């Protein structure tokens, strides 16, 4: 396979697309062909199954240029699978189909996510070259030197500020445009930043933050406004500690559209009778909003808040593109990459583990809320 | 809840709307809605101006961009496409922006199709095949979403570059072979969410349909092709748009797995911000080149887009 990929990489870029997709689909078609044959009974089909059971894993390992013992091992595993399949409770061929459907994804997940996660966890207790066990030293390093503490604190600031403001802005906007004329256009305008990459958004905002000396015309919109109001240009991306807020503004700009779309859908699902009953009772618009609308969109609010929290914890592209972590703006994901670049594998892994531990509770809570919301519907 | 009561609120509210509301309340509602519309207009303007300024600046002559704000375009008139031709040639010694745009296409299309096919297969098995430990395994796949991709990046890189797992070589290395490692990395990172979401859709197919097909003697292969795939096509489309945008807009995976001549446009743009940080005529044009594809997708496939993004916004 490495030979094939090597050959593929010598072709023109655009030609590679149909070839790789074609080869991939051909392999999948072959797999589905055998899955189709699998449940048929009879000696002929049993032999075909046996051959397929051996050839698929063996061929896979062979294609990966693995070692002879691993190739032979894969072939033996295939025989075991055939035997399991032959004795299957649901009839011969059932396990064959099952493995055909499941194994490509499961093998990739094990090799590409589960094993690497374990490796990174182990790495975080090792020295920079991964040769020696150093205990908690990497974690102690993060939480004792000022730069590391700053990084963790910045991440906490991101999680506290970005979700709150984008949710409030999104909610307010969703309420304002609800049932107004041109609601769709209004939605598109605010939702559009969601389509833009963080790198693109970062360039857009860096341009807005640009500062030039006071005696020259400003080209950054924000500093121009400050000058118009009689102030002096500010280097937004260098002025600590507010430069972190300048970066957070970019994420808010992107995520407000997401909050707005979800909350707008939730607001439309609030029963009209309740709102009308409240109106008949003589409540004003604000009371109706806080006493009827808010409680009924509570679960959507939680989903939006947690989803944006996860995005802010993992934020990387914005910080990387705008400041690369300079002037005390670094966050955990950025520092993880920086340490990796500096060949400090242990510290890099330790940052990854810290990020993992911070994200985990929110993701679990978020998943629970989404599940609950689904059940309510 | 029975469906009869579900439809009644709509009827009732339309009946209520037909009756003329008292004048005072009507005036009040108009007034509040006028303020609300004003506020909405302000927010919409605030949210649109940044992108608009970028677009305007990208077509102004370099000298004008450097010395005057884009909002003065009418006083300092001038429109040019020079910035675009200049930025497409800009880059590093191995690659220019035009090449990286092609790279982005070459990375994104396979990295969208491959994980979707694999995830659909697995999702079908989780939804409609019986096997011991199924629920536990599905929960495990779902739980993988809590692993930030940062946890997997470096060991995966070592697997591709040296064929090593836990320091022991197991497979032949293919790290230097073009786009291969970035395709595989994106495929792996897409799988947990894709399997979970597609499973939800495939599992929603009514049991009677699947059972009827089975009674007619259809095998799992046939049920997958003839029933599961067509019925979940809209969901697959929605998710594929999300995956397309995720890969196109990604920077982190590209930084680690797509180096040198195969780097996508996001990586080159991030690099340009470092090396040409004050050449705004180049940066604005470059950013717009990168934005144009997702924006086209956004405007063309809006309905699917919203659905896909809502489903996948927690990925990463």
Can you offer a commentary on this structure?
- The complex is a heterodimer of chains A (377) and B (316).
- Chain A is mostly helical and 377 residues long.
- Helices cover 75% and strands 0% of the residues of chain A.
- The model of chain A has no long low-confidence stretch (mean pLDDT 86).
- Chain A contains 17 helices and no strands.
- In chain A, helix 14 runs antiparallel to helix 17.
- Chain A folds into 2 domains: 122 residues, no CATH class; 238 residues, MetI-like fold.
- The longest helix of chain A has 32 residues.
- Chain A is globular and about 85 Å long.
- Chain B has 316 residues and is mainly alpha-helical.
- Chain B folds into 2 domains: 64 residues, no CATH class; 223 residues, MetI-like (MetI-like fold), CATH 1.10.3720.10.
- Chain B has 14 helices and 2 strands.
- In chain B, strands 1-2 form a two-stranded antiparallel ribbon.
- Chain B starts with a helix and ends with a helix.
- The N terminus of chain B is likely disordered.
- At the A-B interface, helix 1, helix 2, helix 5, helix 7 and helix 8 of A face helix 1, helix 2, helix 3, helix 5 and helix 6 of B.
